[in-house]
Amino acid sequence: MKHAVKSRIIKENPCDFVDRPKTKKYTGEYHNANEIVKLLEVAKGTTLEVPIFIAAYFGLRRSEILGIRWSAIDFANGLLTVCHKVVRVIKNGKVAKVATDELKTESSHRVLPLDDNMLEFFKSVKKQQEWNKSVCGNSYSKEYDDYVCVNAMGELINPDYVSCAFGKLLKNATG
Questions:
Q1: Which of 86, 126, 140, 146 could be disulfide-bonded to 66 (CB atoms 3.0-4.6 Å)?
Q2: Model pLDDT for residues 131-163, shown as the tens digit of each residue
C-alpha cells in the first residue's frame, strides 16, 4: 500500500484508517498442590506421565520438556541443562517436529538443580526406556535415544499430542 501511495496509484493508504484490534493479555492457569497430585495420579502409566511430572516440578515450557536429552542431565552433580527444544512446525503444508538449540529467549538457556527425588525419577525413566528397548528389539526407534520424553516404542512424543491429551487428562483429574 505504501508503494501504491508513493507511485501515486492511490491517493492515500486505506490501512492508515483502520483501528487495530486490541490483543487480550494471556493469563495462565495455575493448579494447587492437590490438583497436581490428582493429575499425576491420572497420568501414571501414560505417555504423558514423564512430561507432566517434569512440568509440575520445574514449570518448563512444553517445547523445553520435550527437548530434554539424557546428555543434558548431569547425574553426578545433580544438574539439568535446559538448552534444546522440540516444536511443531508446518513444512511444505505438512506438520513436522523440529528439534533445535534455539530457545525462546537467551535466559531460557539455564541450569537447574536436581534433588534426590528428581534424580531417582530420571533414573527410573532411563531404566524403563532400556527395558522397552530390550522388549521391542528392532521395532524400538533408536533415532531419539538421547531424549527423555519418548513413547514406549522410542519415538519422540508429538507436541500436539501433549497439548490434546493433557486437556483430557486434566479434565479426568478435576472431574
A1: 86
A2: 999 999 999 999 999 999 999 999 999 999 999
- How far apart, in whole angstroms, are the C-alpha atoms of residue 37 and residue 44? 11
Which bin fits 20, alpha (ψ -120 to 50), beta or left (φ > 0)? beta
Query: Of all residues in the chain, what percent carry a pLDDT higher than 90?
Result: 66
Cell numbers 525419577 correspond to what residue?
Answer: 121
Amino acid at 69: R
Stated pTM of the model: 0.80
Helix axes 49-58, 116-136, angle to 10 degrees: 160
**Residues 166, 52 contacting (CB under 8 angstroms):** yes
